[in-house]
Each structure stands twice: as C-alpha cells, then as structure tokens.
Design brief:
single chain; alpha+beta; Thrombin, subunit H; 3 domains; 6-stranded antiparallel beta barrel; 12 strands; 23% strand
Length: 330
C-alpha cells in the first residue's frame, strides 16, 4: 500500500509541476537511450558471426567476378592483338563493316561496305581480329560480296602450325563454327588443340593467319588420310568488323603464273601487262596534274591573301594619317 501511494504521489508531482515534469522526462530519456545502446551493442555482438558469414560470401562472389572479368580481358587481348601476326610490307589492311550476312544456307555470303573505290578487288582475303573470315567474291563501286568459310564452295589452303603438314579447309553445312581439314597424311603428328593456320601457298592470305583449332581427329572417306574437325576462331554470329587484305604484288604474280601455265596466252598476257602499265602511267600523270593544279590554286590563294593584307595595312595607314591631320588642325 505504501509503494502504491508513493507511485501515485510521484505521478501527481510530475503531472502538476512543470519543473519536476521536465526533470523526469529528461532523466527518463537518458535512461532509455542508454538502455537501447546497451541492447543494440549486445544484439550486434550476438549477430556478428552471421554478418561475417554474409560478408565472406559477398567477398567470394566478388572474387569470382573479378577473376571472370580478368579472363575475359585476357581473351579479348589475345583475340585482338596476339592471334593475328604482323603482315608483310606488301600486304595492307582495308577496314570494313559487315552490312549483311547469311549463316544457314549451303552457300552463305557476306556483304561489306567497301568496294572498288576503296581498293577492294575480287580474290582478296578477309580477316577479323580472331582469324580468317573468307575471300572477296564480287565487288561494286562501294560494296563487296565475301565468300566466307561457311560456304560449300569455299576451299582454303591451310596447315598445322606445329608440324606444317598442309591440307584444305572445307565446310559441310551444319554448325556456324565448325569446318573440316582434308588431305592430312596419316603419318602426320596430329593432336587435338593443334592450331590450323594459312600456309601462304596463295597470294590471298599471308602465312600464319589463324583459322581454328583441331577439335577431333577422324578418317577420310577413303581411309587414306585424316579428316580433322576444326572449331573456327572467327565468330560469324557476332561478326561486324572485318579487314580486307590487299596484296600489292598480286597482279604481277597472276600474270606470270598465267603465262607459265599456258604459253599460248603470252601475247594476251603481255598485252594486258602493257595495258596495266599504261593505265598506271596515266593514273600517275593524272595525279601529278592534280597536285600541280592544287599547288597553283594554293599559290593563287596565298597571293590573294597577301594582297588583301597589304591593302588592309595601306587603308589603316591612310586612316591614321587622316586622324593625325585632323588633330593638327584642331
């Protein structure tokens, strides 16, 4: 009863006296705040092990992401810089973009936005950052049609990088990343993951350009040689940027080989060679005339600018003399 009356007295004291009321609430807030801090600290300590597990799981996930991204960066660097060797001086690259392409036909074709005006000619090689794409088939003024590796009529001369045994790369429809190398001798030391590359026997591709890697080793239809299943490096499904390989020594080589194969064509070949030489001389003459005309125009413009500058200086001098005369009169 005493305690009950004491509590009721304290309530009356706090309720009807402003000073005691403010002291009570201030003290109560301090006590409650301290109590909450203690409870929060105890609760955080009790859940510390669970939070550590969550943080460790997050760190592990981030480590995996960092590793995957680093591997992708390394693969990109390998594709864009390390797979394609530097080309000899007689070769040059003409960059182009793919504007149309088919992948699921027997004779697939690729259209690029560079043509004869850009120096592209039929029977020029086409590559991307990963490897060989195909050969230019037809050209117009500003566009070209490319016969890719994914064409049943395509036949690229190739070799195994480490053993240098050579064969032909053909496509047999089906997958857009699989082709086959035929005519590899059975005594050739072939193993899976071997790199298949161009051998340089034709002037379309220089030697050493990567094509793909050996995925499976099988026998040809007659059993006399190997037929290698090759996974192509070029990703045709996402192919956008390509380069056309221009060989500056190609016309001369073609003429010489044609003459050697058929001596009866000597007159026509020599005539074509003379015509080509005359055309080159005319082009050089036209280029010289164009340069001389541009130089003369530049000299004329320079003289005109100097004349205008001299006239401006003379006008400014006359105005200054006039102003000085006016000041003298004043």
């Amino acid at each position: 009863m005493f305690l009950l009356l004491e509590v009721i007295s304290l309530l009356f004291l706090v309720s009807y006296n402003g000073y005691q009321k403010s002291v009570f609430f201030t003290t109560a807030n301090d006590v409650v705040g301290t109590t909450y801090n203690v409870i929060s600290a105890v609760t955080s300590y009790l859940h510390l092990q669970e939070e550590n597990r969550a943080l460790e799981a997050t760190n592990e996930r981030l480590r995996k992401q960092v590793y995957e991204l680093s591997q992708q960066i390394k693969a990109t660097q390998l594709d864009s810089t390390k797979r394609l060797p530097s080309l000899p001086h007689k070769y040059d690259l003409i960059p182009a973009q793919v504007v149309n392409m088919t992948l699921h036909k027997a004779n697939n074709l690729i259209t690029i936005n560079k043509g004869e005006a850009d120096g592209v000619r039929p029977e020029m090689g086409v590559v991307c950052s990963r490897g060989v794409v195909g050969i230019v088939y037809m050209t117009s003024r500003h566009y070209s049609i490319v016969m890719p590796l994914l064409n049943t009529n395509s036949k690229i001369s190739c070799r195994l990088r480490h053993s240098e045994y050579f064969g032909s790369l053909v496509w047999q429809r089906g997958y857009a990343d699989i082709a086959y190398v035929t005519s590899i001798p059975r005594h050739a030391p072939v193993k899976e993951k071997d790199i298949v590359e161009t051998n340089g026997f034709s002037d379309i591709f220089p030697p050493g350009l990567p094509i793909g890697c050996v995925q499976r080793i099988g026998d040809s239809a007659d059993g006399m040689s190997y037929m290698l299943r090759v996974k192509l490096f070029a990703n045709f499904t996402t192919l956008r940027e390509v380069s056309v390989i221009a060989n500056y020594g190609s016309p001369e080589r073609h003429l010489l080989e044609t003459l050697a194969e058929d001596p009866a064509k000597q007159d026509s070949v020599l005539t074509a060679q003379e015509r080509q030489k005359t055309l080159e001389e005319e082009q050089q003459k036209a280029q010289r005339e164009k340069e001389e005309k541009e130089k003369a125009e530049e000299e004329r413009m320079k003289a005109e600018l100097e004349r205008q500058h001299a006239a401006a200086i003379a006008t400014s001098s006359n105005e200054n003399v006039h102003l000085n005369n006016v000041d003298t009169v004043r």
